[in-house]
Write a structure and sequence with these properties.
113 residues; alpha/beta; 4-stranded parallel sheet; 4 helices; 4 strands; 36% helix
Amino acid sequence: MEFRRVVVVEGGADRKRLKKVLAEPVEIICTNGTVSPYRIEELLAPYEDDQIYIFVDADDSGESIRTLFKREFPEALHLYTERVYRQVETTPYRTLAAILLAEGFHVHPEFLL
């Protein structure tokens, strides 16, 4: 059985930005802000056999979400935007494409120029 790739982001703007860069079907789930261990379990239960990536903002809120995911889903892989951009939604497309490409995602080539 082939696993799916699932990327967890904080909000809809993050999801929209990643969808624009990605050149493959990827499930993108939004936490919509603050999450609890119960909410994480609920969000990710349908994806327990899939490869989960956590891609949250480089700010206090994002770091607290990331810490919770590391504790609850230690097998998840973490993607990081550069601190200078702070948020996934304000990270330039080219930078997002490079981050995703480094993890083996297929991205639209125009974002690599």
